[in-house]
């Protein structure tokens, strides 16, 4: 529905997603992998340089990120999915910081004004949100 309201000419899509590192398939032990880490998938129309290595087979992406990337592939829209594999269940500053290399990408560079305060702002946002996620008994 979102894409139905947008012009497809000149459109470029960037998808950010996280999932547990336990879902990452590799021949080496996932215990030795530095967590969090990024992998990318892209449509064939996406020509920009990637900020991380491509996701290797037999790994898969599912749910909404997969649906958006598939839609972009079918409609020939340049798109990239950055999948962050993390060992935490709840979003934290370390996981969010794994996406920091994307701020220097061509498509996102124009949106970023100053990254010097980004860590401080992220901590504040996550700490504020944390208070709402607690259950008191």
UniProtKB/TrEMBL annotation:
GO terms for biological process: proteasome core complex assembly. Signal peptide: none annotated. One of its GO terms (cellular component) is proteasome complex. Keywords: Chaperone, Proteasome. GO terms for molecular function: proteasome binding. InterPro entries: Proteasome_assmbl_chp_1 (IPR016565). Pfam families: PAC1. Belongs to the PSMG1 family. PANTHER family: PROTEASOME ASSEMBLY CHAPERONE 1 (PTHR15069). This is Proteasome assembly chaperone 1. It comes from Tinamus guttatus.
């Amino acid at each position: 529905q979102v894409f139905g309201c947008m012009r497809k000419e000149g459109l470029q899509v960037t998808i950010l997603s996280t999932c547990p590192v336990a879902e990452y398939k590799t021949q080496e032990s996932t215990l030795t992998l530095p967590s969090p880490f990024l992998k990318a998938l892209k449509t064939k129309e996406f020509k920009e340089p990637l900020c991380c290595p491509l996701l290797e087979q037999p790994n898969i992406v599912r749910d909404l990120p997969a649906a958006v990337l598939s839609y972009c592939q079918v409609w020939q829209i340049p798109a990239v999915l950055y999948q962050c594999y993390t060992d935490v269940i709840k979003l934290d500053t370390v996981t969010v910081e794994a996406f920091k290399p994307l701020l220097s990408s061509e498509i996102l560079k124009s949106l970023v004004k100053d990254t010097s305060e980004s860590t401080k702002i992220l901590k504040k946002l996550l700490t504020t949100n944390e208070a709402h996620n607690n259950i008191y008994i």
